[in-house]
Amino acid sequence: MIEKGQTTSNDIVYEWIIVEDFTEEELGRFSKAHAIPLDLYALNKESDISYYNALDTDHHGQLNVLHLPVWEKKRYGTIQQANSTVTFVYSEELVVCVLSGLDSQWMADQLKSHTSPHHAMVETINLLYNDVEDRLLLLKQSIEDLMKEAKEKADRDVLLNVTDLEQELVFFSRRIDDFDETISRWSEDSIILNTTQTSEREIIALRIKKSQYNSHLYKDLIESTSGLLSDSIDNKLNSIMEFLESVALVISIPTLIFSLFGMNTGGLVGRQSPFGTVVVIAGSLLLGIVMALYLKRKDYM
């Protein structure tokens, strides 16, 4: 489906086109008809990374491209591809918007409602960062909860949760960095400088910096939490091993005495006495208790 329109501002007529629900053949014909030297179909299906480039054409002069994948909030930190994509191909007086999964009516409203259709790119970026910032708030709460759990207990469930969150933040921070590079290059484009306001670009730059800062900060926090949890588990394991070794030492004393009196040789004192068994048991228990008290006093048990 193709929708076309015009916006007039300061005696300049801007044309805009929305393309959606397309096949590869249809988009190929459209690109050829509008002299766009780019495989728009392949680019629009790229749903992992953003893209910006400037093209020199005979028909349009300078023709620039901005491609943005858009994830749902919960999928930003997963290995899954983006739910939808939007590709803007634009010159001074033309904006072509190729949509895959995004609301075409919303995009049409943005193209119509501003002094130039180039503002639709600004609104799309702001929409994208609304979801990014909402996801960052959820990640912040998850990190705070995990840090609290890690301090209270160190078990397998907490470790698995920390690992999952750490993995999510790796994906999330990489995607934020990708957006930062692409949109920073886009904001320096001469066409964008002429068709958008400085305040709008500054707001976007601030949102990018804030999101990038928070994503890296949260990544560092969860890594430190993971280290704390690992140290807590190691400490707990060391305490358990220390206790077991102490118990084994206490038991070894009676075991040694019983072994001596169980030998098939004669000559041991008290071996033939009717009270020998009681004396051996009592002596073994006494020595075991003394060893246990000693280890307890040394905080080994």
From TrEMBL:
GO terms for cellular component: membrane. The keyword NADP does not apply. Residues 129-156 form a coiled coil. Signal peptide: none annotated. Its main location: membrane. The chain crosses the membrane at residues 243-263, 275-295. Gene3D superfamilies: Magnesium transport protein CorA, transmembrane region (1.20.58.340). It is a multi-pass membrane protein. One of its GO terms (molecular function) is metal ion transmembrane transporter activity. This is Mg2+ and Co2+ transporter CorA. It comes from Alkalibacterium olivapovliticus. The lineage of its organism: Bacteria, Bacillati, Bacillota, Bacilli, Lactobacillales.
